[in-house]
Amino acid sequence: xxxxxxxxxxxxxxxxxxxxxxxxxxxxxxxxxxxxxxxxxxxxxxxxxxxxxxxxxxxxxxxxxxxxxxxxxxxxxxxxxxxxxxxxxxxxxxxxxxxxxxxxxxxxxxxxxxxxxxxxxxxxxxxxxxxxxxxxxxxxxxxxxxxxxxxxxxxxxxxxxxxxxxxxxxxxxxxxxxxxxxxxxxxxxxxxxxxxxxxxxxxxxxxxxxxxxxxxxxxxxxxxxxxxxxxxxxxxxxxxxxxxxxxxxxxxxxxxxxxxxxxxxxxxxxxxxxxxxxxxxxxxxxxxxxxxxxxxxxxxxxxxxxxxxxxxxxxxxxxxxxxxxxxxxxxxxxxxxxxxxxxxxxxxxxxxxxxxxxxxxxxxxxxxxxxxxxxxxxxxxxxxxxxxxxxxxxxxxxx
Length: 399
Hints:
With 399 residues, this protein is α/β, with parallel strands linked by helices.
């Protein structure tokens, strides 16, 4: 493998290798595995499931070759995978896993426990459907877990996978909340692209060892965990959880700016592209579909893009700020790569909730479910929807 390195200080712009980085060609799954190593994770548990399996295979290989100082344990199910991480996190370990589809659904019960025990676990989900049986790109598996209390980020590139996992540990350990980092199956997990791989010293400076937040097992101060609580305690406990979830939107932006200062790549809860007073339509997208939308925008100066990186909790404040330059007659079209059994996709539901009280039109499009390709032509079909016609449905399926 050819590598290019630099220690000079070039401009921090796209395509220019930042200082203290190595340029590599990597798949999204490889980027996730390397990110876990860079974050100095000490325990990885997993159960194989396509298309996640190569993440754990690469982690195990690095451990076997002495490149990754961690323990990897193969469990008998995803339920056990997350239960084991829960126990390890309770004693202060920095832990990681990866899963997909039915594996994530099987762990549903434990996801609730991890979130409400306030454990800073980071997990990577390679998004795919559950049924009808399918292993290609879809976000229904992770979005079906949006009410478990986990923060959710959706990644557009392999670079973003690596960078988001690093930032996720920072956020998780600051707010004591678990984080799920999601990437599209195959389009991202098994496609190779250039990735700027930071030196370990750079990551160590950004992500120091986790501090004891006071909610961990301490043999010198014995306590019970996970016991029955009364109504008043339960209410107070969830109010504190709610307060910290309300800090995630701004926390994501703050950590993203700090990450940019260290690594030369800036991130936020959302990204606004080509949104101005003359924008007629805004396409709202997540993950790899965003890249295709970018390719089209040069030919449509009156079309904007709102990329949703933080999906849960939904970043209402950042969204309202991002679309503020657009006029009230600007139509918003959400693109959902998920079907949760409702008439509207999850992204459309969340956008309508965030925009409640605004006078603009909101339309929803289902596209790319189960791995169906979302091409430039598909995006142009979406752009050309006649949103002013009374015959145009509020929700449309696009092929």
